[in-house]
Design a protein that fits this description.
- Keywords: Membrane, Transmembrane, Transmembrane helix.
- The chain has about 325 residues and is an alpha+beta fold.
- It is built from 8 helices and 6 strands.
- Strand 5 and strand 6 form a beta hairpin.
- It is elongated and about 150 Å long.
- About 10% of the residues have low confidence.
């Protein structure tokens, strides 16, 4: 019990220490943030003071420049020339003759001009002129930018038009190439069909015996003539040649490829094969080309379903045919 209390106290102390450390870290972060804010405020104040000083200096310079211009204008005024005193002037003066000093530079008119045009107004006018010139230069820059931007847009528009024309030409080329490819595919298909037809004709008298066990040193010709052909009870059947073909598939031995002397002999065997070979371990199939074999396997499921429903089809000439020998049209299989 005492150990548990000590452990609880230690845990509480550790939690308190962690909380204190977290609070200290938070306080330090807050102090750092406050210092950063104060520094930013000081920098802003310094910048404002510098800007105000610069403005004051600029205004003083403008005032000084305006005063210099006014003094130069006064210095450039022509001196008044003395005129001769007439008798009328003497009578009008009545003993009170104002004297005019030759070469004086200030006149009452000048004093009136100086009082009418204060120095701050001339400074303001100078500042206004500078601002107007700056605005005019900015306007000119904006106009030039507008012109440059218009030229760039026009250039890009021309490039886009060129690209569109090139794309259109490429589209036409693509259409031409597609048409040529279709023509080539059609021609190739026709050639394949012709080659397949020639190959089919070369296999016209052939059939295959599938499922006959293979033995070392066997004589395939004697197997066919002595064991298989007697089952058909037709002594007129003549075998031109026979041999094993391929390596076998699905655990079966290689097929025996047999070539009859005539097509009629092969037809007689193909008609009787189902009844003659019923219950045997081997069977006989037609020797099909690769293209015909693909076509036959393509519709094998549909042919089986039709056979279960009472419709019998046979494969001949590269197509599935009905009892009348006409090609059967299958419905497109849903994918």
């Amino acid at each position: 019990m005492a150990c548990e209390i000590i452990i609880i106290i230690i845990i509480i102390i550790i939690i308190i220490i962690i909380i204190i450390i977290i609070i200290i870290i938070i306080i330090i972060i807050i102090i750092i943030i406050i210092i950063i804010i104060i520094i930013i405020i000081i920098i802003i104040i310094i910048i404002i003071i510098i800007i105000i000083i610069i403005i004051i200096i600029i205004i003083n310079l403008l005032i000084f420049e305006s005063n210099q211009r006014m003094s130069k204008r006064r210095r450039r005024r022509p001196l008044l020339t003395p005129r001769t005193e007439t008798s009328k002037d003497r009578q009008a003066s009545l003993g009170h003759r104002p004297t005019l000093s030759i070469g004086t530079r200030s006149t009452p008119v000048d004093q009136q001009e100086n009082t009418n045009i204060p120095s701050w107004q001339s400074a303001f006018d100078s500042f206004k002129t500078v601002v107007q010139k700056s605005i005019a230069s900015v306007k000119d820059a904006i106009k030039q930018l507008h012109v440059d931007l218009g030229q760039a847009i026009e250039f890009q528009s021309k490039r886009v038009d060129e690209m569109e024309s090139k794309m259109a030409a490429m589209g036409n080329d693509h259409a031409n190439f597609s048409a040529k490819i279709l023509q080539l595919e059609d021609a190739l298909l026709k050639k394949d069909e012709k080659i397949n037809k020639l190959e089919r004709m070369s296999r016209r008298n052939n059939f295959r015996i599938v499922g006959v066990n293979q033995n070392n040193g066997e004589n395939v010709e004697s197997i066919v003539k002595d064991q298989i052909l007697p089952l058909f009870d037709n002594p007129d059947i003549v075998i031109e040649r026979c041999h094993r073909d391929g390596r076998g598939a699905n655990g079966r031995p290689p097929d025996i490829l047999v070539r009859c002397l005539s097509y009629r002999m092969k037809v007689d065997i193909m008609k009787k094969r189902r009844t003659v070979l019923n219950g045997k371990a081997f069977f006989i199939v037609d020797d099909l080309t690769k293209m015909d074999l693909t076509e036959r396997k393509k519709w094998a499921l549909e042919v089986k379903q039709l056979y279960d429903n009472g419709t019998t089809l046979h494969f001949s000439g590269g197509k599935w045919r009905d009892g009348a020998g006409k090609p059967y049209t299958f419905e497109i299989r849903a994918t």
